[in-house]
Design brief:
It contains 13 helices and 16 strands. The protein has 437 residues and is α/β, with parallel strands linked by helices. The strands form four sheets. The chain has a nine-stranded mixed beta sheet. Strands 1-2-3 form a three-stranded antiparallel beta sheet, with helices on one face. A hairpin with a 5-residue loop joins strand 1 (5-12) and strand 2 (18-26).
Length: 437
Amino acid sequence: MSITKVHARTVYDSRGNPTVEVEITTENGLFRAIVPSGASTGIHEAVELRDGNKSEWMGKGVTKAVSNVNSIIGPALIKSELCVTNQKGIDELMISLDGTSNKSRLGANAILGVSLCVARAAAAQKGITLYKYIAELADARQDPFVIPVPFFNVLNGGAHAGGSLAMQEFKIAPVGAQSFAEAMRMGSEVYHHLKILAKEQYGPSAGNVGDEGGVAPDIDTAEDALDMIVEAINICGYEGRVKVGIDSAPSVFYKDGKYDLNFKEPNSDPSHWLSPAQLAEYYYSLLKKYPIISLEDPYAEDDWSSWSAFLKTVNVQIIADDLTCTNKTRIARAIEEKCANTLLLKLNQIGTLTESIEAANQAFDAGWGVMISHRSGETEDPFIADLVVGFRCGQIKSGALSRSESLAKYNELLRIEEELGDDCIYAGHRFHDGNKL
């Protein structure tokens, strides 16, 4: 069954910025997808096409990307008469139409919106759920399905919040839950106790949230954040059952080969900046003191040697995001140089579902884990909930238990777990090896 109509429009993401929504029509009906947007984006990501016209949307308009769907991609797809179940053929046609290495001509935001719509239309044609269709595309086991551990972003810093805290995300992971439903309850309880503690310790405004829904108190150090998070976990009685993860996002504070944890201060003293070895020692101190099971982006996106040196010295999950950008070439180098042991997969970093499948399988083949991730400029589209189940990843991050753009994904996972019943398992402590369960 081929596509009869393709239409794109401008809608808005969780920051109130324009983004692309695409609709595809087949004989089975209309199928829709909305494209997210990042804030702390890696320089090696596929290009999110923005208009750049400062007089409209402060330069962030997406009318060019929308027009590219309506005037170039849509007509080409309809003319091709490719069946919607030919995901690879359709994605390759769009990549060919773009003709650049980073999708800068048509825009990854234009291409991805169509790619995700196609998957929904194909699942409908086959009469199966989206996660089962994705599992077929990825050649992933379905007996049983794996429901992921949610890594909730409960405290925001870095580029996602005000205040002086350099590191971007502090996450909690209910690995000791027996189901996703229980993990949600545990996460909710810890999050709300954390908000109470933040207000008590830093004043009423500390309960305000950052870009991803986590509390954003005006604190200075990672220790301040972790002390408060661990206290909230312990108040709830979940010591040992709820662990902690950090996303440093250090590319924004990497300067002249060093790391400036005081980068938000305009007159930061260079003599206080940390060398890669000194930053490693800082991480070791945090790992020794706190129940940390996952470190994302411990070093900057092109500081390859520091990644390799650090991985040899730790036994926790080390996630590559800005380093790899869901890009097969960079993933291959990271695998070869032993820089990390887990891929953070973001659909809009690469721009098509087909390339995302290839990136996930590339990581799995190397013995890596894969964490599916949202973006900080998110939408109500829950596609990644189906993606993480279909890929059998075992772990997902989609912000805090706050704001509907995040809850849309978590609530969809609740529905999937309920629908599957005994035909699924919760990854729990084995989150890193979801594809092997």
